[in-house]
Amino acid sequence: MVKRAMCHIRAAGYLLAILAALSILEPVGARAQTAASIEQNFAGSLTAMPAENLAVSGAFYVPVYSSVAMSAGRLRADFSATLSVHNASETRPLVLKRIAYFDTAGKMVESYLKAPIALKPFATIEVFIAATDVRGGTGANFVVDWAATGEIPEPAVEALMVGSVGAGHYAFISQGRPIRIVGKN
């Protein structure tokens, strides 16, 4: 039993090492995707915009740790980040109205959609931020605005960060949070 557990731990370590190595192999000067590349790279995930009115809408805030301060702020570790937006509906398209990337100061770094796009049921699109793209800083985030023609399961929106610091390799997820207005009842 102990040997089997150690084998699984070793396999997980190899997987993280491979993921970290892949993140290191990015082209020099690699930057985030552009709106055109999202539409090209994920053409198979997209469908025609619905003709009906968009009756339901929402937004997600996704913290992204593309840079992490370490050693009392004296060092910085940079991670690649992949934002994934999943349509959790089996029957309805999900319309994405905005995917925007913001830096630590709240300034928009980049907008990824020229116009709204519609995701097929159960389809996914991704936005990749290279580890060498440090424009977001330690407090970067995405905002994703979405809509649908009627009731729909809430989309799944999350970011995966991958990188290495010294001999250590790290991968972690940040889940998107619905943006809801709170205040007096």
Number of strands: 13
Please give the oligomerization state of what you see. Answer: single chain
Low-pLDDT runs of 5+ residues are 15-31
State the order of secondary-structure elements, H for helix, E for strand: HHEEEEEEEEEEEEE
Report the helical percentage: 10-25%
Tally of distinct domains: 1
* Computed Rg: 18 Å
* Biggest sheet record: 7 strands, antiparallel
Percent of residues in beta strands? 35-45%
Based on helices, strands and strand pairing, what is the structural class?
A: alpha+beta
Distance between the termini: 55 Å
Provide mean pLDDT, rounded.
Answer: 84
Overall 3D form: globular
CATH topology: Immunoglobulin-like
The CATH class designation is Mainly Beta
What's the CATH architecture?
Sandwich
Q: What is the overall number of helices?
A: 2
Give a written overview of the molecule.
This protein is α+β, with helices and mostly antiparallel strands and 185 residues long. It has one domain: Immunoglobulin-like. Helix content is 16%, strand content 41%. The chain is built from 2 helices and 13 strands. Strands 1, 2, 6, 7, 8, 10 and 13 form a 7-stranded antiparallel beta sheet that branches. A 4-stranded antiparallel beta sheet has the order 9-5-11-12. The longest helix is centred in the first third of the chain and has 23 residues. It starts with a helix and ends in a 7-residue tail after the last strand.
